[in-house]
Design a protein that fits this description.
The complex is a heterodimer of chains A (about 500) and B (about 350).
Chain A (H helix, E strand, L loop, with lengths): L7 E10 L2 E11 L4 E5 L6 H8 L7 E6 L2 E3 L4 H7 L1 E4 L11 H5 L6 E2 L3 E2 L1 H14 L16 H13 L5 E5 L7 H16 L3 E5 L3 H7 L2 E6 L2 E8 L5 H8 L22 E8 L3 E8 L4 E5 L6 H8 L7 E6 L2 E3 L4 H7 L1 E4 L3 H4 L7 H6 L7 E2 L2 E2 L1 H14 L16 H15 L3 E5 L7 H16 L3 E6 L2 H7 L2 E6 L2 E7 L5 H10 L5
Helix pairs in contact in A: 13-14, 14-15
Chain B lengths: L22 H8 L2 H20 L1 H4 L2 H26 L7 H11 L3 H4 L2 H26 L4 H20 L4 E2 L3 H5 L12 H19 L1 H11 L1 H6 L4 H27 L1 E2 L7 H12 L10 H20 L4 H25 L1
Antiparallel strand pairs in B: 1-2
The chains are: A alpha/beta (about 500), B mainly alpha (about 350).
């Protein structure tokens, strides 16, 4: 350790949200001029930690020291004034303003307090962009016309316009092409040479090896390892630190015999440019097939394309051996496919409506004669379907928004159960579902499969895929790198595959 | 387990038989706070009218007049309620009423008599609704812009047809419907039409797949799409429906005024939106009430009548309307946050 105090030192940071303890006593030290990498699985607490650092969340307990003295980061402005800038994954730039206007947003150089000195703004913008080695970006261009990589540079220039000493970057390489990543690394190296510290979040171990100085690993809201050397710590050790959780989920037993029937769902060469490569897969009745992959690996896109919500560039989908018209949700639903989407509230539920109406919405015509709904039949059917899934409370007349996350998910499943679908697509089925309610949801999914449904499951939680699925496809950057029965895989191996792309030795 | 099993299907299971409470009790339980408060406002207005002008306000002829005037805008509001419930807006209703009323009263159309006028009014309404619907549903235009464009063009066309002149109706069978001896049990035929449109509108919104899909599209269009609803076709139908209502309203207006004019239906869009909103339909979509909308229309029409009887200027009226809209929305926000 350097003799002088670290630039930033966070100790014992805790932060709880209703139902979750997102941070459970995290420590983090960052030295001047270093690239400090933050690693951890989804839900490990990375985003919460950087939001605390950005002043967007207030920690429940814990202290933050900045250049040796204690500070409180009451607001994003307070963090900014100290010299802490955060570049989030979704860039917060105003597309219809110019580069210079974006960079000086909120602190425009002015004359007499309100007249913007446009020339000064342009000159200082040009200087900042030169410092980042990107003088080719024209300060007068609209940000909306720039590429993702250039927008990221503008974000960094904006951070630097505040005399910044620490930049937090949340998965900056996720949206970039490989040569743009090289460029990003040059910029980061340049910044650290000036003494600016960088907290770098990424899922890609190879990047961390190239650019990082030290690594802190988060797991279940705790820092399980601090200040590991980024270049020399073996992959196996890092993966071991990230896995091995405290909470063990209970998964229902698999059928003794693997299902052998005709394929219920067959995907042939399905592809979308820039999202996922040609994909082949088969799901038989009674089988649960899981897709494991990180955010941005193309897993949700695959499900939505199978479902017809996105139009494929190549390939097709067959249900029961018959091709489904591509790019049409209605065709997919008619063919017997149901989707429980990732964003339940935004994509599946009618939050103002009752459980009954949410369950019956895909089946309305079955309860109607000449458009006239038989509401008693509708209610009875909704009741039967929600009972089958033990949805609580046992009263389908209650508004769906009053339900817990797990029961809301059951309402979505009941919709497809009622429809009598043959293929069920589950995208992050336990997102927003309490740990306690998960086991029950897993049991429901397995029971539906046992009753003859073909289930295709996508999850960023590797244990969930391994525990629930019969067969697992491992996806990395839109490409299936491995396929195996779930019982032949473990969490280590899958994480190795999704992060490095090759099996660990 | 290896046999493919067809997944279970649930047909109408038996709901547990519950003892039915008396009809009045279910009715009282169903009438929510909002409906009751609107009825309360209407009652207060009636008292004000009865106190300020006891002889004139409660006169049967005056009440017939109030209801007749409410009929035209009321029919438009029923259509508007559907559109707003689906998360859309139709700014062109007033202009469509104007265009339909002048097209249906040209000399050429009047030659075909009653049927010609009725058919033309409805056809023009549906035609304009079709254009709106295609632009919104399949052209991907924002409803605000598409119907604003229709507002401008339909008004322009209406002016072109009439050249600014009032087109007097000479077909007796049409004019006769506005006469006193056409009243059924003291109820003007126009009011009967309004009542029928209201009842059908209520049933369609609350009891049919069409109504359910309208609410679903307005509540969460993406969820509706992913649930397998044809959201675009639904939107097309909704603007068609609004256009049809405008056509009906235009026919009523022709009967009422005995003429067609390009200035007909001026600012109907604002009155219809205001009535729907104070009635409790969410401007953001996902919840709509025909009952509320009709009460909203009756409240506005009653205010107009009271002001007219008391010789108050229309500018004062406008201010009062504005205040009521604000008050109603504020009250609704409160009740919405407490329930």
């Amino acid at each position: 350790m350097a003799p002088e105090p670290p630039l930033l030192s966070m100790t014992g940071i805790t932060k709880a949200f209703p139902g979750v303890r997102a941070l459970d006593g995290v420590d983090l030290d960052v030295q001047e001029g270093e690239v400090h990498c933050l690693l951890g699985q989804n839900g490990a607490g990375k985003s919460t930690l950087i939001k605390v650092l950005a002043g967007a969340h207030q920690p429940d307990t814990g202290t933050i020291h900045w250049r040796g003295g204690p500070v409180t980061l009451r607001s994003p402005m307070a963090a900014m004034r100290l010299g802490i800038a955060t570049i989030y994954q979704e860039l917060d730039l105003v597309e219809h303003l110019s580069v210079a206007e974006n960079i000086h947003l909120g602190h425009e150089p002015t004359r007499a307090g309100f007249v913007v000195r446009r020339r000064t703004a342009r000159t200082s913008t040009a200087a900042l962009l030169r410092r980042l080695g990107h003088s080719e970006i024209e300060p007068g261009r609209l940000v909306g016309q720039l590429s993702a990589a250039q927008q990221q540079i503008v974000s960094m220039a904006r951070a630097l316009s505040h005399d910044v000493r620490l930049i937090v970057m949340d998965e900056p390489s996720a949206a970039l092409d490989p040569d743009e990543v090289d460029n990003l690394f040059r910029v980061v190296t340049g910044l650290t040479a000036e003494g600016v510290a960088v907290v770098y979040i990424s899922h890609r171990l190879d990047e961390i090896r190239r650019i990082g100085d030290r690594v802190t690993v988060l797991k279940d809201g705790r820092a399980v390892a601090r200040g590991l050397p980024a270049k020399t710590t073996p992959t196996r050790e890092v993966v071991t630190l990230m896995t091995g959780r405290d909470v063990e989920y209970v998964f229902p037993p698999r059928p003794a015999e693997p299902p052998t029937g005709e394929a219920a769902l067959e995907v042939r060469g399905l592809a979308r440019n820039g999202e996922f490569d040609p994909l082949d897969l088969v799901v038989r009745p009674g089988e649960i097939v899981g897709i494991a992959g990180l955010v941005g690996s193309g897993r949700s896109e695959i499900l939505e394309t199978v479902y017809g919500a996105r139009k494929p560039d190549a390939g097709h989908v067959l249900v029961g051996g018959r091709p489904v018209r591509p790019g049409s949700v209605r065709a997919a639903v008619r063919a017997g496919i149901g989707l429980a989407p990732e964003e339940r509230k935004a994509q599946a539920l009618l939050m103002l409506e009752s459980v009954t109406r949410n369950v019956s919405v895909s089946t309305l015509s079955r309860f109607a004669r000449a458009g006239w709904i038989d509401r008693r039949a509708e209610l009875g059917a909704a009741r039967a379907a929600t009972r089958e899934l033990s949805l609580r409370p046992d009263n389908p007349a209650v508004p769906v928004r009053t339900l817990s996350g797990g029961n809301q998910q059951k309402a979505v499943l009941a919709r497809w159960l009622l429809r009598g679908c043959r293929v069920l697509l589950l995208d992050e089925p336990t997102r927003g579902v309490d740990v306690g309610a998960r086991a029950e949801l897993y049991a429901v999914v397995r029971r539906l499969a046992d009753e003859g449904l073909a289930v295709l499951l996508v999850s960023s939680e590797v244990p969930e895929v391994l525990g629930l699925a019969d067969r697992v496809l491992v996806l990395r950057e839109g490409h299936v790198v491995h396929e195996a029965p779930a019982r032949e895989l473990d969490e280590h191996r899958v994480l190795d595959l999704v992060m490095e792309g090759s099996p660990a030795s | 387990m290896t046999q493919p099993v067809s997944p279970p299907r649930y047909d109408s299971g038996k709901a547990p038989a519950a003892a039915r409470p008396p009809a009045w009790r279910t009715l009282a339980a169903r009438a929510d706070v909002r409906t009751l408060s609107l009825l309360g406002v209407l009652a207060v207005l009636t008292v004000i009218g009865g106190v300020t002008k006891p002889d004139e306000f409660l006169d049967t002829r005056n009440l017939q007049l109030v209801l007749t005037q409410a009929s035209v805008i009321g029919v438009v509001t029923v259509g508007m309620t559907f559109v707003i419930t689906s998360g859309g807006i139709d700014l062109s209703v007033g202009a469509i009423v104007a265009l339909a009323s002048v097209w249906a009263t040209t000399v050429a159309t009047q030659e075909y008599g009653f049927a010609g006028i009725l058919f033309t009014a409805l056809a023009v309404g549906v035609g304009c609704g079709l254009v709106n619907g295609l632009l919104v549903a399949y052209g991907g235009m924002v409803p605000f812009i598409a119907t604003l464009a229709m507002l401008a063009s339909a008004r322009g066309l209406a002016l072109q047809i009439t050249d600014g002149r009032t087109q007097i109706v000479t077909v007796d069978s049409v004019l006769g419907l506005g006469e006193r001896d056409a009243y059924v049990l003291g109820i003007p035929p126009l009011v009967l039409v309004f009542a029928v449109v209201t009842v059908i509108g209520w049933l369609v919104l609350n009891r049919t797949t069409f109504g359910r899909r309208t609410v679903a599209v307005g509540g969460n269009a993406e969820a509706a799409r992913l649930a397998g609803i044809d959201v675009r076709r639904q939107r097309l139908y909704l603007y068609l429906l609004s256009g049809l209502c405008c056509g009906i309203a235009a026919f009523l207006l022709i009967i009422l005024a005995g003429s067609g004019q390009n200035t007909n239906g001026n600012l109907y869009e604002l009155d219809a939106i205001a009535a729907a909103i104070i009635g409790g339909t969410l401007l953001s979509g996902g919840r709509g009430t025909i009952t509320g909308s009709v009460l909203g229309v009756l409240i506005f029409t009653t205010i107009t009548d009271i002001f007219a009887l008391n010789n108050l200027q229309s500018d004062v009226q406008q201010i009062a309307k504005g205040a009521i809209i604000v008050a109603a929305v504020l009250v609704q926000r409160r009740t919405a946050s407490t329930t």
